[in-house]
Amino acid sequence: MSSRRAEAAASAVALPRGGAPAGDAEMGIPTSRVDPARARQRKLPDPKPITSHGPAQIIAMCNQKGGVGKTTSTINLGAALVEQGRRVLLVDLDPQGALSVGLGVPAQGLDRTIYNALMEPATTLADVRVATGIPGLDLVPSNIDLSAAEVQLVSEVAREQTLMRVLAGVRQDYDYVLIDCQPSLGLLTVNALTAAQGVIIPLECEFFSLRGVALLVDTIDKVKERLNPSLEISGILATMYDTRTVHCREVFSRVVEAFGDTVFQTVISRTVRFPETTVAGQPITQWAPTSSGAAAYRDLAKEVLAL
User: Fold this and answer.
1) Separation CA 56–CA 170 (nearest Å)
2) CA atoms of 71 and 103, how far apart (whole Å)
């Protein structure tokens, strides 16, 4: 992702003259290109089965804006990949511990979490990971202790590479490692970007979410240039899409205009099922396996496997 793409993202947030959202025709974008309903109708190939596991592809779920669906996407993409026969490790890199809560893991009462693996040389990731109750899906939990790591890592040698070193010990055990980043561009998020080969950007179809994409892309470019040459944007995932609003369609159009094929075909629509899964502590693929939300994340898993 070049700086030109960041500039395109920045220009994409500018509203038309008068402040009113423009229609797709006014923007010169073919409706079929930006219609999520049509995109979802495309046939995705069934992934090929695998006979061995590892080394894992590491993907950071990243957006500095909160409430855009990072945690929901991490949980449900992980569960959908497991359904395709992959072994997946989810890493909660947010001191709020939402990923752990979403999987029913009482992280606040745990003695050891990702914080210990990052800050204690004698503690490995294998020591702190826990089973989720879904075969093939493991979790590295987090709680409020992790907030101290942001300060403590500042004085560490090669501080941006701490998570990468920690993950090296378990990469052979999994096919995918999905990192749920905190809603900021601080040192923990830079650690995730340094460790990852790919970044998925969940983007709420809302104007203020779009405004922050240029800053995020610029940060990814800097990490790629200075710390991790293999880092690429795997895709931008449109979330919380509401087919009833012109505003959602307008934002989605601007995202496709700026990023083109980088935008996933799969679009995650709003549904009451997602809040229900958080309370249940289960992925939507288990809580409501026949729902449209479960189908969407299964489609996303196929796209990720095809990358």
Assistant:
1) 8
2) 10
Q: What's the whole-number mean pLDDT along residues 229-241? A: 93
- Domain residue extents for the chain: 3-14+23-305
d(CA 101, CA 74): 13
- On whether the CB atoms of residues 111 and 145 are closer than 8 A, the answer is no
Instruction: Give the β-pairing of 137-140 and 130-131.
Output: antiparallel
3-class secondary structure, 111:
coil
Cα three-residue angle 253-233-76, rounded to 5 degrees: 80
The CATH number given to 3-14+23-305 is: 3.40.50.300
Position 170, amino acid: V
Query: CA–CA separation, 238 vs 120, rounded Å?
Result: 37
For residue 75, give the amino acid letter: I
Residue 152: predicted pLDDT: 93
Q: How would you classify the pairing of strands 198-204 and 232-241?
A: parallel
pTM over 0.70: yes
* Percent helix / strand / coil, the chain, rounded to 5: 50, 15, 35
Residue whose tokens read 């909160």:
66
> What does the pLDDT look like over 271-304, one tens digit per residue?
766 766 766 678 888 878 888 889 999 999 999 9
Place of tokens 């950007």: 201
237: DSSP letter: E
**N-to-C CA span, the chain:** 16
Please state, in angstroms and as integers, the Cα–Cα distance from residue 37 to each residue in 23, 238, 249, 283, following that order.
17, 13, 11, 23
Give 113's contacts (C-beta < 8 A, 6+ positions apart). 92, 107, 128, 140, 141, 142, 143, 145, 146
CA 192 and chain centroid, separation: 11
